[in-house]
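Could you help me review a protein record that somebody else here produced? Do not assume that whoever made the record got everything right. The record follows directly below this note.
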Amino acid sequence: MIFLTLFEIVGYIVSIIVMLVIVQFVLSLLISFNVVNMSNQFVDAIWRSVNALLDPLLRPIRKIMPNTGAIDFSPLVLIVGLEILRIILRNLALASM
């Protein structure tokens, strides 16, 4: 029963992190193509908030991964790792029933 609760909590947190990664990706594209302006205080606040939340998770991944130039694959690695964690916890929850 504890694994089921843990699975649900981790699943919820993983969903939030994946949503933040998608927001960061879309916002970085909008900033790169000058669709939104970083001098806008609202855009700047969202950008800094999302980066402040994700940087502690992405920094260790970026240290391990090789430099691929302009493309940063660390968000993809983070999402895959979190999904693997979710699968493991789901299987533990099902096995404990």
The CA atoms of residues 30 and 36 lie 6 Å apart. The helical segments are 2-32, 41-64, 74-95.
